[in-house]
Design brief:
about 350 residues, alpha/beta, globular
């Protein structure tokens, strides 16, 4: 008898990019995450970005999540990701240990090697050194959480050995997938990534399935796979309205995508939607496009973000509702059992 696949978990991800000042951005994203919890989402993730508010609006994700811990009760709170080479490894270990206590054990910790090359300079090193610094820092964080002795005979307080099982590593590469698997960590896959030279028509799953393969092959025997597939998703009640916001957002983001290495053969909205791997439209539209993604059927965690459409706040809230009530169940998410009508009443 064939065993049914395990139910997927549903997450919401934000780079904190609402068109507003910093204080308003933080308030709006907090409201979005609270709304996601109301509609049954299993996790919420925020990214860390330094200096450039157009790339991301949150340099201190653990501070932000600490505030959210007191305003939520069930949803898991994750970093997607902490740019570890730019941080003090011991301070990261301390802050995550305390935050996990404050959130009653709801913290998930995603790590990555960092952002744009210029962002490393104020921290005193070159982007070229990020890989070596990342490896050293991650080892220190693990040692600290595990209660092993640090320099000077010190040990972390409070200890947090349980966080060793909640590490996620973000990567674009097969070697990165192998590393995450070998370490027994979760694997974080991006919503989009630049296509290799000569493969501009490759689908996103063509790039990510080999990463998943390497991860699973390297994963220690008996270790449960954790694979997070992030995707750009904006759902609306009306297709024309969804495409209108997609045009505004994607045209605004074209230059940044080109700078990050994407080949952009056309700036027509329908071409940008495909180039940047965006799923946009009514629930039926996005269910069809997401079901065509052959990497998503292999992930354990479906995590959606509205970037780079970035519609107004009220449309993000509605997109979250439609995602939980119609889209995610069609992709293998079961939810918490309450009806969409009951959840809408809870927010009235």
């Amino acid at each position: 008898m064939t065993q049914s696949p395990a139910p997927k978990r549903l997450g919401f991800f934000s780079r904190v990019l609402d068109e507003a000042d910093a204080a308003t951005r933080y308030r709006l994203v907090a409201e979005q995450i609270i709304h996601a919890e109301t509609f049954g989402f299993d996790s919420a993730w925020v990214a860390q970005h330094h200096f450039n508010g157009e790339e991301g609006g949150l340099p201190a994700p653990l501070v932000f999540l600490a505030e959210l811990a007191g305003r939520t009760s069930r949803i898991r709170l994750g970093t997607g990701v902490i740019t570890l080479p730019m941080e003090s490894a011991v301070r990261v270990a301390e802050d995550t240990a305390v935050l996990d206590i404050l959130s009653n054990g709801r913290l998930e910790v995603g790590f990555g090697t960092g952002g744009t090359p210029a962002a490393f300079l104020p921290f005193g090193f070159e982007s070229a050194d990020r890989g070596a610094i990342y490896a050293k820092s991650l080892a220190i964080v693990r040692d600290a959480w595990a209660g092993r002795e640090l320099a000077g005979g010190n040990r972390l307080y409070p200890s947090a050995p349980h966080l060793l099982d909640r590490v996620w590593q973000a990567t674009f590469s097969v070697s990165g997938g192998e590393r995450a698997g070998r370490d027994g960590d979760g694997l974080m896959l991006s919503r989009t990534q630049p296509r290799p030279a000569g493969s501009h028509d490759a689908e996103l799953w063509d790039l990510q399935n080999p990463i998943i393969d390497a991860y699973l092959e390297a994963l220690p025997r008996g270790r449960r796979p954790r694979i997070l597939g992030s995707r750009s998703l904006f759902v609306a009640d009306d297709r024309k309205e969804a495409l209108h916001f997609a045009e505004l957002g994607l045209q605004r983001s074209v230059e940044r995508f080109i700078a990050s290495g994407h080949n952009v053969p056309s700036t027509k909205t329908e071409d940008l939607i495909r180039t940047f791997d965006v799923h946009v439209g009514t629930p039926d539209d996005v269910i069809a496009s997401l079901k065509a993604d052959r990497a998503l059927e292999r992930v354990t965690d479906l995590v959606f973000q509205v970037h780079s459409v970035d519609p107004p706040h009220e449309y993000i809230l509605r997109s979250l509702e439609l995602t939980a009530s119609e889209v995610a169940p069609a992709l293998g998410w079961i939810g918490n059992g309450s009806s969409a009508h009951e959840r809408r009443l809870a927010t009235a």
